[in-house]
Each structure stands twice: as structure tokens, then as C-alpha cells.
Design brief:
Blueprint (H helix, E strand, L loop, with lengths): L11 E2 L5 E2 L8 E2 L2 H16 L3 H4 L5 H12 L7 E3 L3 H14 L6 E3 L6 H14 L4 E3 L6 H4 L4 E7 L11 H10 L3 E5 L11 H4 L3 E4 L14 E4 L43 H11 L7 H22 L4 E2 L11 E5 L3 H10 L2 E2 L1 E3 L3 E5 L7 H16 L16
Parallel strand pairs: 2-13, 5-6, 5-7, 7-8, 8-9
Antiparallel strand pairs: 1-3, 4-10, 9-10, 11-12, 12-15, 14-15
Helix pairs in contact: 1-9, 3-9, 4-5, 10-12
The protein binds pyridoxal-5'-phosphate.
Pyridoxal-5'-phosphate binds next to helix 4 and helix 5.
């Protein structure tokens, strides 16, 4: 495969005048996505109707897309299933992992984890109703909190607020040494940092495809199960498309003998088709090149912003090797400041209570974008532009 150079802006539709630093939340629109969606709607759905499950390859699409994602994550073909949302995949992984350690009752996560992951754990604990406990120490204390009573360690590798990155191999090793099962949430890792799932030896990994993978709003999530255990794990959401023979219409559930058992119901074909198109942007991209470009962009950004705006405080690790592909600054008036930035074409986002968050996506950002963004941030912060009352009304999505 030809190794391409970065960025590849020509593959994406980015509105004029926008510097998009929010690809960690919702990736940009790939140029081919609209045509692909139209083709699926008009030709496949419109003309082929229900035949398209076979004639247009719809039934195989979740696996085809899963294999492409597996490739990006250092996982073998067939080990990644796609569909549903990340919250559901967290639930499935956690339920299956708990069943692997029936005599333990503790789930270990951290208090920097994304709320939905913690909420799903809390809901599952209530449903099982067997006295399970969720422990959430501070992220830096997690490795020491892995003790012999832990059933499952469930962590998000890259912290959604600060970008702080856990050491996947070291934590997985400790979890295994203590007899625990390891689940990694790769929501802010997939397409952002090099991941080697096979080398990590983790039992499960989950993630979403609308962030760095540019699959679009509502794009399907993914779940990885380590191939040597997949045939023994018990799916909690035992839907018909995870059955070994869905069209045999048997009365009793019998899981598929592969990661397919983590499928639940009918796959989202429109979203999968768009995601498949989006994943073509990764053809020829070496993950080490992406990482080098990401570090260069974030280092430039930190240097430029700190030099211009002394009132902003870096809220991400200063060492680039301990960061994912995002940089956060703490600022008391972060919400109105971000609204003022967005109006000026610099799109990042805000996370309560005071974090201004900026994502770096080397597929479609270059150094010039980053410097231009820092200049606009300087204007908004140093000239108190954020004080304008129009930037203070809070929207539903921040
Ligand atoms: C983005 C994100 C989610 C969102 O879950 P959805 O079910 O896709 O809404 C969950 N967990 C983490 C760690 C995330 O970063």
C-alpha cells in the first residue's frame, strides 16, 4: 500500500472559514459520504428493496466495516463487531466480563471516565442486583487500586476532558496479574493514537465511529473481543443477529461462534455505508505518521496559546506522550469564550465546569490552521470579547 502524506484535506468537505478543532466529538463530512448515502437509498433500498440484504451485501456490511476498524486498532480480522451505540457496547462488554469472574463483585473504573460508561455500569449493577460495587478512584490512582477483589477493570484510554492517556499495556498487565478482566473504551483513541489491541492482551475493547473516524452523527459503535475467548463469553443482549443461525428461527438462543455474537438486531445500513466510505480516508495512513502529526499540531497549539493568553491554564498533560489527540485549557469563562470562538470560525467545545477543549485531527488539519486558531483565541480572550451577553446563553449541547 502506498503511504500517503498528511493532511488529506481534499477528502473532506469543511466549510469555508472554519477551523475545526472538534473532530474528537463529531468528525467532519467525508466528500464521498453524501454520494454513498444517496446510492444506498436510491439504488439499493429504492430499487433492490429487501433483496439488497443479499444483493447489495447489507448482511455482511457490519463485518466488512468491523474488519477495517480492526485493522486500525491492531486487531485481527473477524474480532470486531459493529452496530448499536457505544453505551450499549459498554454494557455488553461489562456484562460479559462480569460473567467471567462469578466470584468477584467489584468493577473498577476511574472518576475521569465518560459519564455514560459509569451510568451503564450503575444500571447493570442494579439489574443484576447481586451486590456489585463500582469503584472510581482518580485516574492516576487506578493502577494501585487494581487488587485481587476486582472482577473487571473498565477504563477509557484517553480522558474526554483532559486528553490524559492511560498506559494500556501496563494497566492490562496489572489487571491480569490480579485476575481481573480488562475492558478498554477507545472512543478517543480510535483514529487518534496508535492502538495495538493484540499486544495489549485485553479481553474487550469498545468505541464509537463518529469521533476521529468521521462516520457521522449516530454512526455505529464497535466492540472487540479477544479471539481466544470469544466462543466462551455470554452475551447479555442476546438478539437474533447474534444467534448462530438467525434465519433458522430457532426458539432458543444459541450464540454465533465469533464476535458476531455481540451483534444484537438489524444493522444501521445507511450509517454503516457512510462509515465505510469515511474509513477509506485511512487507506495508506501509517498510524505512526498520524501520531507524529498529531503531536506536532498539539505542541504548536499549546506553545502559541500559552504565549498569547496567560489567563488560560493548560488542563492536559504537558508531556505529549501522555496525551491523546486533544488539548484542553481551563478558563473560568470557558463557555462564553467558546461561543465567541465558534462565531469566529474556531470550533472546539466546552465541558463543564471550565474546560475549553480542542481536538487535533491530522487527516484534515495543518500547522497553519493551528496558528490561525491561536490568533483568534488571543483576540477573544485578551480583548474580553466573551463578555458580550450574547455568548452567555447555554445551549442544550455544549
Ligand atoms: C463519546 C463517548 C461515549 C458516547 O456514547 P454513545 O452511546 O455513542 O452516545 C461513551 N463513552 C465514551 C468514553 C465516549 O467518549
Amino acid at each position: 500500500m502506498v503511504r500517503v502524506s498528511l493532511p488529506r484535506k481534499e477528502l473532506f468537505d469543511i466549510p469555508q472559514g472554519v477551523i475545526y478543532l472538534d473532530g474528537n466529538s463529531l468528525g467532519v463530512l467525508p466528500k464521498g459520504a453524501a454520494a454513498r448515502a444517496t446510492q444506498v437509498i436510491e439504488n439499493e433500498w429504492g430499487n433492490q428493496l429487501i433483496k439488497a440484504w443479499n444483493t447489495a451485501g447489507w448482511m455482511a456490511l457490519p463485518q466488512v466495516v468491523g474488519d477495517r476498524i480492526a485493522d486500525l486498532l491492531g486487531a485481527p480480522s473477524g474480532s470486531v463487531a459493529t452496530g448499536d451505540t457505544l453505551s450499549i457496547k459498554v454494557y455488553q462488554a461489562l456484562a460479559a466480563a462480569l460473567k467471567m469472574r462469578p466470584d468477584r463483585r467489584v468493577i473498577l473504573s476511574d472518576n475521569g471516565n465518560f459519564p455514560s460508561d459509569l451510568y451503564m455500569a450503575q444500571g447493570l449493577i442494579e439489574t443484576i442486583d447481586k451486590g456489585y460495587e463500582l469503584r472510581t478512584p482518580a485516574p492516576e490512582n487506578v493502577i494501585d487500586a487494581i487488587t485481587e477483589d476486582i472482577a473487571v477493570v473498565m477504563l477509557t484510554q484517553v480522558d474526554y476532558r483532559s486528553g490524559r492517556m492511560h498506559d494500556m499495556r501496563a494497566i492490562t498487565e496489572k489487571a491480569h496479574a490480579m485476575g481481573a478482566v480488562m475492558i478498554w473504551d477507545l472512543a478517543h483513541s480510535a483514529g487518534a493514537v496508535p492502538v495495538d489491541l493484540t499486544a495489549s492482551n485485553a479481553e474487550f475493547a469498545v468505541g464509537c465511529s463518529y469521533k476521529y473516524l468521521n462516520g457521522g452523527p449516530g454512526a455505529p459503535a464497535f466492540i472487540y473481543v479477544r479471539p481466544d475467548i470469544v466462543d466462551t463469553i455470554k452475551p447479555a443482549l442476546s438478539g437474533w443477529l447474534g444467534h448462530d443461525a438467525p434465519f433458522a428461527m430457532e426458539l432458543d438462543y444459541r450464540p454465533a461462534m465469533s464476535t458476531e455474537r455481540m451483534r444484537v438486531g438489524t444493522p444501521p445500513i445507511l450509517q454503516l455505508a457512510v462509515l465505510q466510505d469515511a474509513l477509506e480516508a485511512w487507506d495508506g495512513v501509517a498510524m505512526e505518521d498520524l501520531r507524529a502529526a498529531s503531536i506536532a499540531l498539539s505542541e504548536t497549539f499549546i506553545r502559541e496559546v500559552e504565549a498569547r493568553c496567560p489567563t488560560l491554564t493548560l488542563a492536559s498533560p504537558r508531556d505529549p506522550h501522555q496525551r491523546g489527540s486533544q488539548v484542553s485549557f481551563a478558563f473560568e469563562n470557558g463557555y462564553p469564550a467558546m461561543q465567541a470562538l465558534i462565531e469566529r470560525g474556531v470550533i472546539g467545545d466546552f465541558r463543564a465546569p471550565n474546560i475549553m477543549r480542542f481536538g487535533f485531527t491530522p487527516l484534515y488539519l495543518d500547522e497553519k490552521d493551528v496558528v490561525a486558531a491561536a490568533e483568534i483565541i488571543e483576540d477573544v480572550i485578551n480583548n474580553d470579547i466573551w463578555r458580550d451577553p450574547k455568548y452567555h446563553s447555554v445551549s442544550r449541547v455544549t
